[in-house]
User: Which sequence fits this backbone?
């Protein structure tokens, strides 16, 4: 992992931890498998921290440029799937 997670200097320490955990699950969805419920739970928390759709898109794009992983596609797959585990492999 040679990339950084997107951050906002206005977030609290707990918010930073929660956002990093969310992006970490996105990463794991590409490299392994993640539990769908965990991913959706952390996405809901992410949306509490980042309610703006435009800001969400900016952060997703920053992460994609840095890592090559599409947060949008992982979240979309998790929302549409009935599977317990999500993988992008």
Assistant:
């Amino acid at each position: 992992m040679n990339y950084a997670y997107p951050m906002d200097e206005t977030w609290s320490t707990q918010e930073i931890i929660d956002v990093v955990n969310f992006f970490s699950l996105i990463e794991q969805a590409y490299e392994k498998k993640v539990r769908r419920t965990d991913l959706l739970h952390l996405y809901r928390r992410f949306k509490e921290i980042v309610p703006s759709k435009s800001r969400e898109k900016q952060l997703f794009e920053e992460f994609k440029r840095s890592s090559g992983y599409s947060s949008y596609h992982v979240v979309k797959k998790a929302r549409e799937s009935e599977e317990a585990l999500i993988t992008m492999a």
User: Anything to note?
Assistant: The chain has a mean pLDDT of 94. The first strand starts at residue 34 and ends at 35.
